[in-house]
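Continuing the batch. This is chain 6 of the set; chains 1 through 5 are on the previous pages. Same settings as before, nothing changed between runs. Recording input and output for traceability.
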Amino acid sequence: MALLPVAEALERLLEDAAPLQAECVALMDAADRVLAEPLLALRTQPPFNASAMDGYAVRAEDVASVPARLSVIGMAPAGRGFAGTVGPAQAVRIFTGAPLPAGADTIVIQENARDLGGGSVEVTASTVEGRNIRRLGLDFSKGDVLLEKGRPLDPAALSLAASANHPQVSVVKRPLVAIIATGDELLPPGSGLGPDQIISSNAYGVAAAARSVGASALDLGIAPDRKEAIATLVKQAVDADADVIVTLGGASVGDHDLVHDVLTGEGMTLDFWKIAMRPGKPLMFGRLGDIRCIGLPGNPVASLVCTQLFLKPLLARLGGRAFRQDMRQARLGAAMPANDLRQDYVRAVVKEEEAGTPLATPFGIQDSSMLKMLADANGLIVREPFAPPAATGAACSVLMLR
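Output for chain 6:
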């Protein structure tokens, strides 16, 4: 099977990927979820003309000239309005959020009034009509579209939904990613290693990347290099209603690379296998019914680079989220040789310059097993296939990682 260009692989992977079905969740549990439909106001806010300040509700004509002495005929705290009517030379003591009493048309703030005792107040600064009043519907009116479909529910959006009287909201189902690591050599962190074993690390980065775009991650553990063991975990993923199955390792061409055979044996239709990229060439993608299957390389750096390029955009789309890679222009901090037929993603440190374009300096070694280098890198210099040699200071494209 010929190597597939990165852009074409991504296009095929995202083909027909649409937001998953909607589900209703309690508003308190809806943080960072994505709205499945527009959110309409169920009430008007404010639901009445309300005082914006502590002070006195008065008629503007009575305080046009100051000082003005008024009779205090009652009190209006928040949540319990004054039932009477403000007449000439009268005032009602009022607090922020309370309804504006009938007859009043302005609020004198308490700093501009002096309590004279005996039910009288002296206004010391004139106030025009409408001052310090939040009008009915100032924020929104019943039936208004407050939030559009596809809006992630951040703190402000959640508070707005609550203010509009929504105890629950319709959100896009979180994509569920089932992660299966494969390999006789792998043990979980904290294990006592034998002489031929290593720690399984990829699942942690892949799960974190999935959660960063709103998906849920189900770690099904490590399958040894036996078809029946891998098949057992694949069936667990299917039984868990996973939307995406991600396998780690075992998707190349060696005698122990069994993932392809197991998945096709379970009914997967292979879409593509092997990408013209470095690192990440042995990337596999297929469909098992409605489940999308992605076979990531076993090398840690390749696995995480492919996660950034392919898995995150897919999960974002399934979750109804907008997603765009953070691509920037930079200058090379070191010369680079000509590239071959594969698109290269070169780990680099990108530094902002005081003036001008950022400087991207590639690491001297680019082995796809070196996780510390990837952790130290904050960008990937993207080298197109057959790119000619590039001198220090030449323009380059960088995919920012953080």
